[in-house]
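anyone seen this seq b4? input:
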Amino acid sequence: MSKIIEVDCSTGISTERDMTEAELAAQAAMQAQAEEARAAEDAAKAASDALKASAKAKLVAGQPLTEEEAATIVL
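predicted toks r here
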């Protein structure tokens, strides 16, 4: 079981205790939420990178760009 260290700032005394079931559940929920957010960020970055690569390839080939591709270009 995971432990929590609590420190009383007024006295400096620290105590260690086991996490409650509710705290363990909350920790697991926060971890799952963080993993979902990380996956969403990774997917958004991959989509952006693919769009930039497509824009670059079209520029090199002399083809017209879509509005999304044009928006990725920094002048």
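The two ends are 55 Å apart (CA to CA). The beta strands are 3-7, 14-18. kinda curious what u guys think
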